[in-house]
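Hi P.,

Sorry for the delay on this. The queue was packed all week, but I finally got your sequence through. Input first:
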Amino acid sequence: EVALPKIVGGKTPGGTEFTVFGEQADGLLTIRAVLSFPLPGKFIHRTFCDIAFQKRFDDYIKVKDIVAQSGGCDVIYHEMKLPSPLTNRDYVYFRRTHSDEARGEYAVFLRDVPDMGTKYMPVQKKAVRAGLGKHFMDVLIQNHRDGPGCRVVSELRDNPAGAVPKWLVNLASKKSLPGYYKGFETMAATMMMSVPLIARAQSTPI
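Then the structure:
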């Protein structure tokens, strides 16, 4: 199904199976991952989309907010914390989402805002403006028809820009993926468990 070289595969302690494929274009690695999560697709989708929830769990987020709306898309500013001596990276991108709970199908699409996103967020001295037209992510989610959980197909490419060599960016991407999937699975499971509490809080008169 995926005509790309396989670069890593495995299974998280929580039961998420993943196979990751990749190829290089302009020196940057484009990654396509096929995953099987043991959780319903709506919670995977919510975890991708709920910025406030992400801030509680992701220590690499310094700033992440919706700063505008454009053409039916959210415009998101995201500054990512990096350990010294690396400089923080920030991104400005469009996000479009799709949700069809009746069919159990969901999607998230991210694209760089042209011209480095300066229309929505000026370039900051404290961070390197990343992306530069070479950053994207597409996530397609579909509930399993024959059991619990969902299938996720994602394709992404990151461009942190700056002086970091592209081979090092590619290596870091490969090494970080298993840990990322493990952390994302934990965050989505926490999201699923917290939904009844959130619903009760929203229905309680103040």
